[in-house]
Design brief:
By secondary structure, the protein is of the alpha+beta class. It is built from twelve helices and seven strands.
């Protein structure tokens, strides 16, 4: 808990309280966010007891965290390494690859450029209804839109990484019925445009609403930190807010195909959300790292320092920053 005499900013406290008071929590998803954001820069491993203590202030109980971690190990995100009577949890090689891919999107300084080619995944074999739905869900969480029932589309996805993710989701039997393609616009005068493709494949209105909800949730926190000349927030609250910020932003990006600016509506809220996340993260970084320095432990009792990787996130050279 915060140290005596420290005042937690009201908007920050409200966000934390809102999370604690919600109903069913997907603890496994929170743990994935913590591993990607806080554990990866400190060597990709943590003592289970330390993870439990770090997340306890979010009202995630020990049993829930243990169950969620065991499930992540079963799904090959994590593996265990006993040290005496304690156990470290480490990222598996496949888990490490997944986090590195996600990090490229979460901590990017600017919107991705587009090579004006579309990435397509087309089904070329018969799929059972359950197979088709599992494929649709898996590709949805990679940002793919759908055109009809047999074609999935994305402007810039790494198709190799997309297929690796399908294998990791247990869809190896489906992969052999899929054809990955790179498609360039042939630019026939009367043909559908790229914007028509976007409107047919994604519900941008719904995605815009999700981005606007993210901004509404975190803008008051950022405004209060800006207004406080000393930027005063206790270390524990800074860490917990950082966890929720990245957790919410990561889940949001999983739904976002990261369309190039030329295909997006004017004043797209995703740009504002990215700049907000970047500034708030950087303001929370120092106090949250102090909290980790004090409470992050390996099974050996050591506290590994954060690597330089941490300071490469959300670099300053952001062309959108001038528009904020």
């Amino acid at each position: 808990m915060p140290s005596p005499g420290t005042i937690v900013l009201s908007a920050a406290q409200k966000r934390l309280d809102d999370f604690r008071q919600q109903g069913r929590v997907q603890a496994g998803s929170i743990i994935i966010s913590v591993f990607g954001d806080a554990v990866l820069p400190r060597g990709s491993r943590i003592w289970l007891g330390s993870l439990i203590q770090l997340l306890k202030p979010l009202d995630l109980n020990e049993r829930l965290i243990r169950t969620s971690v065991f499930r992540l190990a079963k799904d090959e995100w994590l593996r265990t390494e006993p040290i005496g009577r304690r156990t470290d949890y480490l990222l598996t090689p496949s888990g490490h690859r997944r986090f590195e891919e996600a990090s490229r999107h979460i901590y990017a300084s600017s919107a991705p450029l587009w090579d004006r080619r579309w990435r397509l995944i087309v089904t070329v074999g018969e799929l059972a209804p359950k197979e088709r739905e599992a494929l649709r869900q898996a590709l949805f969480w990679q940002g793919f839109g759908t055109l009809g029932g047999d074609c999935f589309v994305h402007p810039s996805a790494d198709l190799s990484a997309a297929f690796d993710a399908l294998l990791a989701e247990g869809l190896a039997g489906t992969v052999g019925k899929l054809k990955p393609l790179l498609a360039a616009d042939a630019q026939f005068g009367n043909a559908a445009s790229d914007v028509d493709m976007v409107n047919g494949a994604w519900n941008l209105e719904r995605l815009a609403g999700v981005y606007e909800g993210f901004v509404e949730r975190y803008q008051p926190v950022l405004d209060e930190l800006r207004a406080d000349a000393s930027g005063d927030i206790d270390d524990e609250s800074a860490f917990l807010l950082r966890v929720l910020l990245i957790h919410d932003y990561r889940r949001l990006l999983l739904r976002d195909p990261e369309l190039p600016d030329v295909l997006l509506p004017a004043e797209w809220p995703g740009q504002k959300a990215r700049l907000l996340c970047k500034e708030l993260y950087r303001r929370l970084l120092a106090p949250s790292e102090r909290h980790l320095d004090a409470h992050f432990q390996l099974a050996s009792g050591q506290t590994p320092p954060a690597s330089q990787l941490l300071h490469e996130r959300f670099r300053e050279d952001d062309p959108l920053a001038e528009l904020a």
